[in-house]
Amino acid sequence: MKDEYRAITLEWLSKAESDYNFAKSSFEEFDDFYSQMCLLCHDATEKYLKAFILSTGNRPERIHDLVALLNECI
User: Which of 4, 2, 10 is closest to 51 using CA atoms?
Assistant: First the structure.
């Protein structure tokens, strides 16, 4: 990973982990907030994909389309 992308990649990963962990704990604790948990999982996945793209030295598009981001990762 290029050094100039390391900090921002780690920041994206930290935010993704936070979203994922909150969704996971919400799922274990509550049973009425599925749409909010799905949104958090989508956000976490988006951040993981963008972190991967950054780790390769590329800038991810400013989109929320998981399929497009995944294709960019491939």
Answer: 10
pTM: 0.88
Closest residue by Cα to residue 44 from 68, 16, 21, 72: 16
The Cα–Cα gap between 14 and 5 comes to 14
Domain boundaries defined on the chain: 3-73
Dist. CA 18–CA 67, nearest whole Å: 22
Please identify which residue in the block is written with the tokens 């948990």: 37
pLDDT digits (tens, 9 = 90+) for 8-64: 999 999 999 999 999 999 888 887 888 999 999 999 999 999 999 999 999 999 999
Rg (CA), the chain: 13
- Report d(CA 48, CA 32) in Å as an integer: 26
